[in-house]
Amino acid sequence: MSVDANFLTVAVHRQTRVNCREGLANVFHDIGIIFCTIAEAPEFASAVLDALRQPLESGVISIHRANAVARFPARFQLVMAANPCPCGQYGAADLDCSCPPSARRRYLARLSGPLLDRIDIQLRVQRVTAAQLRLAADGPRLTSATARAHVEQARAAAAERLADTPWSLNSEVPGPWLRGAHARLPGEATAILDRALERGGITMRGYDRVLRVAWSIADLGGVARPGAEQVGQALYLRKGMTS
């Protein structure tokens, strides 16, 4: 049966039943696909992209109707890619962009602030040069097997640290717990993050997400707790902020 024809019947309040069509986020969760990749994200309508906010936040999709509520598990990692403008040439050293400023603003505005606030790592990638290709070919390479081993070690460290909690992954830990007595980092470790929050450069949701990434960086590096270095790296990966 195709995904489009696959319906779920969910029991809801007052003994009513409602038929809901599965979406890809729920299908990915069910079959164990943890990555969802969206290329050319601004080509999608804003309403479609903003519909991702709920599953990115809670890992669940809830559909509310007058007398029915349906909930579908939808926990996945989202990877989005976007050009800097509709023609894709803005910022290129040897190419001319044909897009007026208003078109560039409209294009990128489809990635709303609330959606981006739920994206932990945001990187700007420049065009690859011939020199970079040569250096990459001659330099050391990180193989998939090595990367997998690093991730497995980091996950094992997180699971051991969280053994007495309801969670096993850093991404599952709620912000209040991270900021509470169990996992609170010293002021010197979070000083850069605190300044970003005070200046309005990051939201409270973003603050908690930076902490989660910092713990993951520490686990990958074999460090027991994040310090200023790991928190700074996590903030840079999110906002490009260094101080």
From TrEMBL:
Pfam family membership, one: Mg_chelatase_C
GO MF terms on file?
ATP binding
Q: Which UniProt keywords apply?
A: ATP-binding, Nucleotide-binding
Q: Which Gene3D superfamilies match?
A: P-loop containing nucleotide triphosphate hydrolases
Q: Does the keyword Amino-acid biosynthesis apply?
A: no
Fetch the InterPro entries from UniProt: CHLI-like, Mg_chelat-rel_C, Mg_chelatse_chII-like_cat_dom, P-loop_NTPase
The Magnesium chelatase ChlI-like catalytic domain covers: 32-132
Outline the extent of the Mg chelatase-related protein C-terminal domain.
143-238
SUPFAM superfamilies found in the cross-reference section: P-loop containing nucleoside triphosphate hydrolases
What protein name applies here?
Answer: ATP-binding protein
Q: Whose protein is this, by species?
A: Cryobacterium mannosilyticum
